Every structure is written in structure tokens, then in C-alpha cells.
UniProtKB/TrEMBL annotation, chains A, B, C, D:
Family: Belongs to the phosphofructokinase type A (PFKA) family. PPi-dependent PFK group II subfamily. Atypical ATP-dependent clade 'X' sub-subfamily.
Chain sites annotated for binding substrate: T207, I208, D209, M252, G253, R254, E308, Y361, I362, I363, R364
Keyword ATP-binding: yes
Name of protein: ATP-dependent 6-phosphofructokinase
Described purpose of this protein according to its UniProt entry: Catalyzes the phosphorylation of D-fructose 6-phosphate to fructose 1,6-bisphosphate by ATP, the first committing step of glycolysis.
Gene Ontology BP terms: fructose 6-phosphate metabolic process
Length: 441, 441, 441, 441
């Protein structure tokens, strides 16, 4: 990828329609607006720097998000729609609320509608009515998990969606969702572009798994491992409460183990973490089952955290199903481990008690914790700044200490994963004391 | 049952060995000791009173628990054992800690051992070593769920248990467990009695389901519905997050719906509660499935709380299994509902999204909340008072505002249930707005 | 007091206007309505029973609360007002919500108004407008502390209040407040009676201190000591974090130490509890300062919980101020202890570090916990049942396991206190290990 | 400052004594050790990059922390001391535990002592004994706030400290504390250097205020604003519970408003934030008092968050006291605001109710939340890696997404502050809607 791939599109700049003058802000003070052309480096090591200097290459970088002095849209006649798609994730309501408040109070945009139940809400046959959103109607929603707009999974017809946007005279569409949703948002943008409409499409990436590329942290992720932390503590009580007690907690993470890894780093009782990025065997002297048995012989209890996408190599990929969003439905690794352990230890006459805990719905439907609440608010404010300035086909992200803007295609180009030879995984190994490899030998 | 059935046994009173004089208390002040013969009425209505007066019958009543001036055991050479059995329940560690602290600091009993992993810990073949318990070793355990002693299910050989008690020179055995455990404790008492040993057997009833008869509240129960409360709130977010979203939360309650009912009363979002005590049909115009569909047509989301023992009439009782404690393993009513709803609504083409949540292990392994923590401490203190006074074959209970003592046989004579024509269930009906009956018509 | 003092008044029974027939309940099922004349005994010991039988006296008792078949008010034209007075207390919003929902959904009463800012809201000069209350407008309020209606302290002119009630055509007034508020409610009832109006006045007693007589537990009290529990745990960290570290936590309790005592029973780290009901000296070999010093010499940290009304004997009563509600403003015993300790230990050159923590506003403004939430709902439902049946000048209470109804004058006749020679205080002494007396010798 | 100022010192590299070979790790796998010479840029904008390239200057950067292949100390005879100083902060116990576990399990260092009560613990006259630290002794401490080692404020004699380190044969000293502590650590290092001792001094910076320079986040800070979040929510209930209700919450922040700002961003109910970095007037049409009054006239409640160091310009600096650590003791701005508001509004006859809440001790003594818990663990692991590699006079920090190492003098060279013309403060202004300036006009 080159520098240019990271440039965010702007709706026809010539048509700038208004200026964020003192009078359009709630207070007249002049803040330092974002200079359009400053950016933040993706790679920030000194060795990278030296390499870039040597090769005289402009390093790849992200646009920094923030308020712009010149607006593309005139607040007094701008109409905005918000849609939330995909699975629940802590913080969605915070994002909705902050988009509404930022538009209403800071930009004086008063026409905001919520689309019900994801992209379904644009499609006539479902007959979901839009709802008007005001600071009053979203007043307390940040205290609750879920999404007040409702959500759904799966693609809908792009042409009908853009028809509906046109009919509603929408100028800006905020799409809150995961990579399927963002691919949809990009397709919507392309159809808008084809029709030469002046509609900005802004993505606010939602992935509880924290696996969106080029974004160092996604909202709801911290809340997820925070809640998992309590559940793991309790699971530890199950493990120590029985002779050779085993507790298995399955956490979210279809393609990556960020929640599992961070949860294990935040609660020091975990003995084994299994994630999609790692290869491991069940059998063999270094395999999972023997590692577990040795642990039990030594300490008489074991606490295991497993990401839902771990160990999928044990299943025949030909048989893997997909959900309505097109995500592969993982075979249940938790139940698989339960079966295998039971089979093996019963065969050996090795006594044990096993408890299997799957708290996914409890985690994803929780309200955002304080830090995520703050983060959601700032993501939303920056998304509004960018959209009001006419940027489109973008997502708002975060990199190092900056809020950033990225083209949607870049953000969905691939998923972020844990490097099992990198620092994070080393930290997990050091914290849990688990063997660095559980490959058969 | 008559007045005499409620009398607690005392080890040969003639042999009183010491007195709780000022010097054996940490401080010399004379408190009002419990008068041995005051009791608290079981039925406290005025109409009952009048009936008893008319019939000149001594009303049935419980012994009031509390400190006794004359002790049966001499603290300086008393040795105590504590055992915890059955499933986890919030507060077990609090009980252990308070028994230890009360014995150690108030009675100066310094020899206390913990039996590991339930009744297994008495049986040689399991090779579990007793652990010494001191205020230091139990210092922080009340902040954690589970049991530091470990637990197991199922009966063990009574003769071997009493052999071990004799060998360890135990004078008092505290058994913390459910009705299976208490039946075991009673059998231990009988064997002790047969051998003419001076060992007191004290039961501290543990049932997260709150279903012990003649005890108005069992420890851990409030914590259970408190944690369920949060989980139900989050489940509500799942329900409202989808069009015709249904969330089913299965809560503990094998034979009674107390947790389900209290959870529904504490969080006002629940629409339907199903408990073992109620009869209901799936089909028919007033049956569960139609009630649910009408709810969805009207409000487009539904939140259901189901006790694990509800609807067992849908299963063939011949096939019901038992667990190691002899409890009937309920067929999973949650999964049954999920299947039936899916079948019915898919057949009808009625759109819905269903999430099924089973948080049992998360609830039962949590630490006690503040009120349960207080309650556990007082139960333990009263159990120690009674045992030091030589009472045996008893459980410590609570009735109205008093801590009480009951003979073990009385406490396990039958299980407490919700009266579906009584006030509690009426309150649930009023709070949820669910139909008073879901019987087919 | 005699049996008759405990009789609840009813608005002219002859004028019964409607019946809670199946059609006026949401569902036609016949529940067991409350028999008007059953009651629950106040004293429930067997010795009391025998004494009553001997003396042939009808024992004093409370009316049991619950739904009545015959209503006094016709739901379709009944208008209800709710007012909240005095200091904040966890659960007020739950009570408001449940009164509204019970009236609306179960009785089909649709005209409900909220009076703003306590009794001020009835008085023209303050110009506070009533607000309409519906299930929608109170939908989420139970998740929040405080009161959505606002509150104020102090008496207002009774004549103007009844004028306003008349003008608004109110049939039932629910007063949620402490004993000042309830005295006001009684005065309102008397003025109503003088004018021969058919307005029912229902009190829902609110006292975070749990000191209302003849009521075994008031709403918000459990939440209060639950939140205090966490704060005390943290204060313990302050105490152990320094050499001879002292942490003093002041808790609510103007005339009684229930919160302090229950908090100390729920968190086992507390070393000294001081309450209004106990006498203690600062000086002398057994006085507070020496007890504290010995504790520090022995363990090098001390955790003290003090009720705000403790030790008022150290202050000159002539100088005690009253707040707008007429409550005596306690001199700050926490600051007094801090000063005295500092003075004494500095004079002696005894090293120490002292942290003083006053969390009152944090506690009283918190949302109700699960058990209080349940309790508030049931209190409200029972208050509505009684008021709809035409009862007046009553409060809804709780005794042993029953919701009860009491005449307001009885409930405010005196305050409940801890008996320092009784079981609760003995439990505190046993749990903290503090000396039973800190009187000078 | 130049590139060289950011170089971390190493104890005489020639004397490398051991290698972190597979056998000294718990598991033989080779991880990617940190390359000694890679670093991470401090300024990461593209404009900075271009400027550096133009001027051919090596950009300033931090050393990246991580495990080193070659160790300076031989684990089998290394002895380590840990000391905690200054005020409490969430996470200190996590850091202690993780230092111990990392040394013990990963490096096989078995001799670890805890110094009691800060630097006092080194000084003979205080007579505080060191305690041995093992994984068992620190097993559960991460669940609790405070510090198990105890702490104290203030400088102690450096010569005596180094004498004690020598006498105890300490090889590595971990100092957990704020900038006073770190200055002390640097002085200890200098004395060690003067004496030619091979003792590594490692700083783990603790500042709940998050104001250490060149470190983007300090441990405990997130927990602080998380707990503040709940307290602010409750304070909001106080504000809305009264007519013209004002709630003032004072939060920590002696020289910077990070906690206040982040708390306000995480809970959207705050109306006014006051921080040390901002100038504001009490009087004048745009001054604080008028802003507050207009807010009340408009909405009838106001929620104010004030950092303890705000508005110190209102006090005569000549009279400011210092605490034992040499920190200026701020005059209480909260009480000052309370007085001024009361004075002004009473004079004007403007009705109001004001509640002042100071939760500092409750916040700083809380246990670390999940994210801080994780962060503390990783800080500790990285501090151990660096110290075992012979680095000294350093602190472990965090910058963007990397754990870093900095020379102590750099980290204490100045305090970090909020730029009131920068993005964070702009976000606060946008979120609260408060005027960008409250300067008199």
C-alpha cells in the first residue's frame, strides 16, 4: 500500500457551502482547527524512520481527525441519518447519542433520523419506520447497552438503500457496524457517486473483537474484556471449588484472540489461553490434553480461556456454516474441548470436574465502561467533524494517540490479528505461565 | 407436625463443661444471654393466634438462636471441623471465615480444621488432607466466591466419616450444604449417637434456590437474584436490539422459582416468568407460544425468565437423570423453549431473533453481596453459639426477624415452594403483566 | 398503645364505588384478595403469646396489606398525585415508577401527576408546574438514584396544599418522605377531613437511616449499607497503607446507628463502630482514645465507622442548629474525632496518619440495589392497593415477612433505635471485637 | 532536549553475567528479544517527519522496553527490593504482584523483599522490618486497592538508604512512586554510582493525576476517572433533585486537570469543568458565577467538576503550604466555590441548593479496573526485563502503543498538562457545552 491509498475522499470541494464561524459554534472562541494536510505516521520506530529517509519514500500515514473551519454542508438544511448494523457491542448507544448531540448543539443540525434494525430499515418490505432523534430522545441511552435503533445482520439491496436516502433527502449517513457493514457503506458510497449525489457516507467501525486493521482499538473492546474479567474470576472459583476442577470460559474472537489475551492479562488467575492465531494439538506429549493434565496433577485446578475462533483446524472446513452477515459460524471450540477432555480423562480414569461457561451475550449487551464511553463520544465527535466537512467513504479510527480518518476500503482490506511471535502474546505467555507451544512433538 | 418436632437436641446436658464467663469473652461485659426456652412463633397472623387460643394448642414455634451462658464444650480443648458440600453458592467463604473468627476470637477455640472437597475429605481413598484454619488463613476469603475448602457432590460412607471424626478428635462438625448434605449430617449424627460419642453436628443450610423449608431466606439467594438482575438487564438489550427480539434467561431453581420470581420483581423489564410451580401449556390460544407471539406483535420484543425446573412436565419423567447428589437433572427447559419457538415461528413465517442465556455458573460462583455477607456472618456466629452449647443435629435458620435453630429432620422434611395463588406470585403477575394462566383452553 | 391505635382509617366505606372485577384487572383470573380483617402480630415470641393468653388481651397487630376486591375509587375518573420530600434516598424513583405502573396497568387509572420539589410544588409562589406521569415518562427512572420529581425540605402551609389538591381534583395523594413529611401528610389528611373531602392520603415512608418505628426495614437502607461497604473496604486500604494509619468513615444515622452497624456486619475489617445509641468517653483508660491507641500499638492500623449522630453529648446542645426539615443538624462527630485524635496523639508524640471520609451524598444519591428495587416495587403496589380501597392517613410498612398498613400517627410516634443490650449490637461487638464499653473508669 | 538525553543508563555492560537462555525461561521457546537499539519516535506527525528530514536531525525517541537475551544479573544470586511511596493509587498492589511473579517465575529470582512504609522503611530509627515477598504472599493482593507494603511521604536520608541497600545485599531496587519518589530514586542512583555499587534502580512512575511527562498514561488514572464517573452520576442526581440544584465534585489534579477532563468526557451530564490549566474569573458577565446563574435559570440544575488545583490564582500564593512530599497543598477550591456561590446567590436572593462532594480517598484507594490491571502487569514485566538487563536510573513508561524506558531525570523534568488550546480541551468544551472562556470582560 502506498501513501495515496490512505487519502480520504471529499465531496466536491469547490462547492463549499458554509464556514464554521464563531456564530455557528456554541461559543465564539477560536480553537485551532485541524490543518487539512497534517497526518500521523503509521510506523513510528526509529528504524522505520531511518529506512524511509534512506529510500526517500514518503512514509505511509493517516489523516488526523478534528474540526474544520470550512464546512461542506450548511447546518440549517442538513439532514442526517444514523444506522446501526451487526451484533451488539458496548457503546453503540453512546455513539448514537454523541453523534446527535454534536450535530445538534455544536453544528445546529436539527434534522436527524434513526434507521431501525440496520440496513433492513431502508427497505420498504420490512416496513420499519425511521425515528426522529433529538438530544431529548437520546438523553439517557448511554447508560444502557444494546442499540436503541435496533440492528440486523446481512446485506440489503444497495439500490433500494440509496433510493431511500434520496427520498428522505439525507445529506450524511452514519453507518455504525463491522466490516460487513462497512463494505455495505462503501457500496452505498459507490452508488451515490454513480448517481452524482452529494451524500457523505461516514463509517464508525464497530467490532467487539478489536480486529479492524489500522485501528489500534475499537469501541466496546475494553468493556468486553472488563466484563470477561469478572466472569473469569468467578470461573476461577468453579475451578478451585472442585478436586481437579477445570473451568473453561469461551470469549468472543472469531478470527483473533484480542479479548481472550487482554482478559488473561487483566486477571492473573488464567492458566491457559487458546486463540485463533495459534496452532496447537490436542494430543502428543506437548499437546493441550497433556499440558492440562500436568497442570492438574501439579495444582489440582485449571482455568482456561478460549477464543471462539480458536482450534477451528480441528473441524472440517467444508462443513463450516455462515451467519446472515456472511461471517463463518465457528464450530464450538468450547464444547469440543469439553468433549475431548471428558473422553480422555474418563478413559484414563483421571478424576476431574469440568464447568463450561459461554458468557458472550452477557458481554456484548453490556453498557460501555467509563473509558469506552469517553472513547465513543470522541469517535462520534470526530466522525461528525469529518462528515460536516464533506469527507466521505471514510471511517473514523484511532492510531496511537490520535483520532484518524481512513478510506473505508483500507479499513476492511484485512483483519488485525495477534502476532504470536510478538510482544502481546509473549506477555500472555509470561503472565499465564503456559507453554509457548502446544504442538505435538 | 407438633411442637415437639421442633425441639433441638442437646448433647447430655448433665455434662456441662464450662461457662461463658466474662473472662472467656474478649471483653468482660455481661450481655443478655439467650434464655433457653424462648421461642418464636411460626404462624404470626392474628387469625392463627385466635385459633390456637380457641383450641388451647401450644402453637408451633422455633428455638431462638443466640449465645448461651453455659457451654457444653471447654474451648481450650475443643477441636472443630468444617466441611462444605454440594454446588457453589455465594457466601460459603463468608460462613467459613465467620465460623473460624467466632470460634477463635470469641470462644478462644484454636483447633479448627477444614475438610477438603466435601464429604470426600473424610474418606481415606481420596487422600485429601485436612487444612488448618486460622483467622490469618481465612483473612480475605470473604471477598471471593466459591469455597476455599473445595466441595464435591454425593454421599459417602457414614461409618468411615465418623471413624475419621473420631480419629481427628473432632468435637464439633459444621456441615455447610444443601438438603442432601444435611441428610448426610443427620446420618452422621445418628452414627455418633449410636457410638455414644460427644460430637455435635451443626448444619448451616446452603441452597441458592432458597427452597429450604421453615427458613425464610437462605444465604446466597439474594446475591443470586442480584447478579441475575444485571444479566437480565443486558438480556433486555438483546431483545430490543432486534425486530421481534426474544431473550430467554434461564436461572437456577430446580423445584422452585424463587430466584426467577425475585429477579423479575427487581428488574421491571421482564415480560414472562416461568417457574416449576406453575402449570402451563405450549399450545392453545392461551398457551405460551401464543402469549409470546401476541407480545411480539404488540411490542416487537420479549424478555423471558425461566427457572431451570419449569416445564418438566414436557419431558418424559422416566428418562430424567440424577446427578451425583441425587438431584434430578432437569431437562433443559431453556433449550426446549428455544426449539419450540423456533419451530413454531419458522413454520408460521413469523420473523424473530432469539438469544438464549444460561448464566448459572457465573451467578453461583460470585462473592456474596453486602446483605448476604452480613447474613452469613450472623448465621455462622449463631451456629457457633449453639454448637458450643452442646446442641446437635440442628440447622441454624432464620424466621421473620430472628435467627433460629431447627432439628435437621424438620428442615429437610420438604422443600419450600412458591404458592402460585399467594402474594409473591401475584406480585410477579402484577409486575410483569403476564397472564395469570397460560393453560390451553 | 392498644389494638385500636393500629387500626387504619378508611374513607366513608358506604360510598364504595367500584369493584376490582376481572375486567378491571389486566387478566381475569381470581386471586385471593386480602381479607380485610386479618392482621399480623407485632410480638411473635412464644413467651409473649403465653402472656397474652394469660391476660386474655388481644395482642397488638398490624393490618396486612394487599389487593382488595372492593375499591373505593372508580379507576376511570380517579386522579392521583405523587410528591417526594426530604433528603435523597435510593429507591425513590423505583417507588414513583411502580406507583405509576400499578395504577396505570393494573387499575387503569390514567390521570397521574407528579408534584415538583416536595411540598413546595403545591404552593403558588414557587411556581413549580406539575408534570404528567405515564408509564412512558417513568420508563427508565428506576435505573437512577435521586428523584425525578425533585424534592425540598421543610413544612408548607397545609391550607394552601389542600386548596391545590382540590383545585387539581386529586383523589389520592402519595407522599414519599421521612417523618417530617409524614407529619405533614397527617396534617393534610386532617384538613381534608375537616373539609369533608374524599381524598385519600397515603404515606410511603422514606428513611435511609431505617429508623421508622414499627417498620422492620425501610427502602434504600440496604442500598445505603451496601455502598458503604465498598467505601469502607477502600478506607481499610487507607488505614493499612500507612504506619498507624487511621481511617474514619462517617455514615448516615442522625438518631440511630443502623447503617453503621449493618455496614460493619457486612464488611469484616471494621475495628470500631460508634453510634448515637451508645455512650462513650474520649478519655480515661477505657475511653475511645486509649482504645484506639492500644489497637494501633497492636496492629498499626485502625478502621473506624461512626454514625453522624454519635457522640452528640460532646457538643453543647444549646448550640445545635436545625435544618429546613426541622431535623437537628448534628455537629460533625467525624471532624471532632479527627481533631481530638490529632491533638492527643501529637501531644504524646505518637505517630499516626489519619484519613477522614464522609461519603453521605454518594450513598444517598445512588440507585437502589436489586433487593431494594424489588422492595420498592412491592411497597408501591401495596400502597396503591390500599389507597384504591379507600384507606387513608396510612403508611405502607413491612413487618417480618408481611407488607403492612399503619396509621401515620403510629409510624411517627417515635423513632426506632438500636438496643445496645440486644442481639444486633452484640453481633457488632462480636464481629468487630471492639470493647463492649468505652466508658471512662 | 536532544536524542542523547533520552538514553537509558546501563550498569557496566562488560560485566554481563548471564544469558536468558531457554533454560532460564519457563519454557524453551525462543521469542524475539528486544533489539537494544530500536526506539520509538516521540513526535509522529508527518509534518514533524518532514522537518526532521529537512534539518537532517535524528528525531528524539524513546527506548522500547522488552526482554533482553543477555542479562546483567545472575538470577540465582540476585536480590531485589521493592518500595512504594507517596499517596495511594489504584494498581500499586498489581505492580508489586507482577514484579514478584515475573522475577520468581520467569527469571527464577527467589530473593525478594518488600520495604515497609516507603523510604522510611530504609531508615533504622523507624524500625520497620522488611517483609519477604513470594508468589504466595502476594497471591490475591491485586484484588485490593492500597499497597500491602504501606507507604509514606517525604524525603529520607539518601546515605542511610544506600547503606541499608548495601547491608541487605540488594541488586535491584524497584521504586514505585510519583515525581518526588523518582527524584529520590535518582539521588539513590547517584549515591550508588558514587560508591561504585552494582545496584540497579528502576522507577515505576505512579501518579493518579496522569501528569508525568513523556508518558502518555500512568497506571491508576483510568480507574480514577472510572470511579469518578459513578460518583458524578450520583452527584447529578443531587443536582436534579433540588430546584436550582448545584452539585460540585472535586477531583484529584494538583497541577493538571486530566482526571476532571476525562471524567467529564466519560459521563455526559457534566455542565462545567474547571482545571488548573485554565484561567477563569469569578465575576464579570462571562465569569463563573454568571455562567452558573444563566445555566440555572435555563435548566434549574448544574453539575460542576473541579480539579483540586484549579483556581489557585484566587489564593495568596505566599500562604500556600506544602505536604510532607513537598507538594503544594492546594487551598480547597471546592469550598471556595461553595462559599462564593452561596455569598453571591444569597445576596441576590437567587434560590439554590448546593451539595459539595470530595471523593478523593474513595477513588485513590480503590482496586485497579481491568484495563489498569493489565497495564500494571505489563509495566511491571517490562521494568523487570530492563532491570535484569542491567539498566538503571530509568523509569518504565508508555508512549503510543509501546512500553518505553526513559532516564529518570527526563521523566521528572517537568509535569504534563492539558493544552487548553488543544484537542482534549476542545473535546471537553464540545461535550459539556461550557463557554470556551470564563474570563471577565
Amino acid at each position: 500500500m502506498t501513501h495515496d491509498d490512505f487519502k480520504v475522499k471529499v465531496l466536491g470541494r469547490a462547492e463549499v457551502k458554509s464556514k464554521l464561524t464563531p456564530s455557528s459554534l456554541s461559543d465564539g472562541t477560536a480553537f485551532g482547527f485541524i490543518e487539512n494536510d497534517d497526518r500521523v505516521l503509521i510506523n513510528t520506530t526509529l528504524s522505520n524512520y531511518k529506512q524511509d529517509v534512506e529510500t526517500s519514500k514518503t512514509p505511509i500515514s493517516f489523516e488526523i481527525a478534528g474540526p474544520h473551519e470550512y464546512l461542506y454542508f450548511n447546518p440549517s438544511n442538513t439532514k442526517v441519518a444514523i444506522v446501526t448494523c451487526g451484533g451488539l457491542c458496548p457503546g453503540v448507544n453512546n455513539v448514537i447519542q454523541s453523534v446527535v448531540n454534536q450535530l445538534y448543539y455544536r453544528y445546529k443540525v436539527k434534522q436527524i433520523v434513526g434507521i431501525r434494525y440496520g440496513y433492513e430499515g431502508f427497505i420498504a418490505k420490512y416496513n420499519h419506520q425511521e425515528v426522529e432523534l433529538t438530544p431529548q430522545s437520546v438523553d439517557k441511552i448511554h447508560f444502557f447497552g444494546g442499540t436503541v435503533l435496533g440492528t440486523s445482520r446481512g446485506d440489503q439491496d444497495i439500490v433500494q438503500i440509496v433510493d431511500r436516502l434520496s427520498k428522505l433527502n439525507i445529506n450524511i449517513l452514519f453507518c455504525i457496524g463491522g466490516d460487513g457493514t462497512l463494505r455495505g457503506a462503501h457500496a452505498i458510497h459507490q452508488e451515490i457517486h454513480r448517481r452524482n449525489l452529494n451524500i457523505s457516507v461516514a463509517g464508525i467501525p464497530k467490532t467487539i473483537d478489536n480486529d479492524i486493521n489500522f485501528i489500534d482499538k475499537s469501541f466496546g473492546f475494553e468493556t468486553a474484556f472488563t466484563i470477561a474479567n469478572d466472569i473469569i474470576r468467578y470461573a476461577h472459583n468453579e475451578a478451585i471449588g472442585a478436586y481437579n476442577g477445570i473451568a473453561i470460559v469461551k470469549l468472543m474472537g472469531r478470527n483473533s484472540g484480542f479479548i481472550a489475551a487482554h482478559a488473561a492479562l487483566s486477571v492473573h488467575e488464567v492458566n491457559l489461553v487458546l486463540i485463533p492465531e495459534m496452532a496447537f494439538d490436542m494430543d502428543g506429549s506437548n499437546g493441550f490434553l497433556n499440558v492440562l493434565q500436568r497442570r492438574l496433577e501439579n495444582r489440582h485446578h485449571a482455568l482456561i480461556v478460549v477464543a471462539e475462533g480458536a482450534g477451528q483446524h480441528f473441524f472440517d472446513s467444508a462443513t463450516l456454516e455462515k451467519d446472515a452477515s456472511g461471517n463463518i459460524k465457528n464450530k464450538d471450540i468450547g464444547l469440543f474441548l469439553k468433549e475431548k477432555i471428558t473422553e480422555e480423562f474418563e478413559a484414563k480414569g483421571f478424576p476431574f470436574v469440568l464447568k463450561y461457561i459461554d458468557p458472550s451475550y452477557i458481554i456484548r449487551s453490556a453498557p460501555a465502561n467509563a473509558n469506552d464511553s469517553k472513547f465513543c463520544g470522541l469517535l462520534a465527535q470526530n466522525a461528525v467533524h469529518a462528515a460536516m466537512a464533506g469527507k466521505t467513504d471514510f471511517v473514523v479510527g484511532h492510531w496511537n494517540s490520535n483520532f484518524t480518518l481512513l478510506p473505508i476500503p483500507i479499513s476492511v482490506s484485512k483483519r488485525k490479528e495477534i502476532d504470536v511471535e510478538g510482544e502481546l502474546w509473549w506477555n500472555v505467555i509470561e503472565t499465564t505461565g503456559q507453554p509457548a507451544s502446544m504442538k505435538k512433538q
